[in-house]
Amino acid sequence: MILSTLIQAIAQILHMVISIYIWVVIIAALITWVRPDPFNPIVQTLYRLTEPVYAWVRRYIPTTVGGIDLAPLIIIFGLQFIDLFFVKLLFQLSASL
């Protein structure tokens, strides 16, 4: 009972963190369309949160197609896969305990 609740809580927190980070990626991608001030603290925070993940994806996959960077889209698809597969797997594991 306790282990089941713990796994379910971890799955719920993981789902929430993934959802928040997906929104951070979306906002960061939209902000790049308007050429923001690079010294703005919000822009710097978004850059610090997303650029390490973008760099990791760009290292393994060529993401620029026709001048458009597809790294945010690849990251969103990857996060959605993790959310739909692993988080659901954790919920099913907690239900079977």
TrEMBL record:
UniProt cross-references to InterPro entries, sorted A to Z: CCB3/YggT
Cellular-component GO terms for this entry: membrane
Keywords per UniProt: Membrane, Transmembrane, Transmembrane helix
Residues of the signal peptide: none
The keyword Membrane is annotated on this UniProt entry: yes
Transmembrane segments: 12-34, 70-91
Protein family (similarity comment): Belongs to the YggT family.
PANTHER family assigned: PROTEIN COFACTOR ASSEMBLY OF COMPLEX C SUBUNIT B CCB3, CHLOROPLASTIC-RELATED, YLMG HOMOLOG PROTEIN 2, CHLOROPLASTIC
Protein name per UniProt: YggT family protein
